[in-house]
Amino acid sequence: MEILKVSAHSKPKSVAGALAAVVREKGRAELQAVGAGAVNQAIKAIAITRGFVAPNGIDLIVIPAFAEIRINEEERTAIKFIVEPR
């Protein structure tokens, strides 16, 4: 599954375009976000993506979960969003 990393400075429309492309090509994707700002941008991107893929008859669902990731040799807790068609 393709993993897209989102930061607090990510542009939601750009992330949405990448997410829509991955979902169309591979069927599902995962967004990872660490911190409140990144989670906010990820949720906005998912909402925008739903609008991008709806005309193609794709209704997206999102499954949120926690993920342990390493950043600069530190363990961090990320929120991951698994995005796939209903």
Describe the structure.
The chain is of the alpha+beta class and 86 residues long. The protein has a single domain (2-85), classed as Alba-like domain (Translation Initiation Factor IF3, 2-Layer Sandwich). Helix content is 38%, strand content 40%. It has 2 helices and 4 strands, in the order E-H-E-H-E-E. Strands 1-2-4-3 form a 4-stranded mixed β-sheet. A hairpin with a 2-residue loop joins strand 3 and strand 4 (74-85). Helix 1 (12-26) packs across helix 2 (36-53). The protein is globular. The two termini are 17 Å apart. The model has no long low-confidence stretch (mean pLDDT 94).
SSE sequence, one letter per element = EHEHEE
- Tally of discrete structural domains: 1
Kindly report the oligomeric state of this protein: single chain
**DSSP summary, beta strand count:** 4
Please tell me what the overall shape is.
Answer: globular
CATH C-level:
Alpha Beta
| Largest sheet properties | 4 strands, mixed
Structural class: alpha+beta
The CATH architecture assignment turns out to be: 2-Layer Sandwich
| Number of continuous helical runs | 2
**What name is given to the CATH topology?**
Translation Initiation Factor IF3
Query: Strands of the biggest beta sheet: in what spatial order?
Result: 1-2-4-3
Beta-strand residue percentage: 35-45%
Radius of gyration, Cα only, in angstroms? Answer: 12 Å
Mean pLDDT: 94
Q: What percent of residues adopt helix (DSSP H or I)?
A: 25-40%
- Distance linking N and C termini: 17 Å
**Spans where pLDDT lies below 50 across 5 or more residues:** none
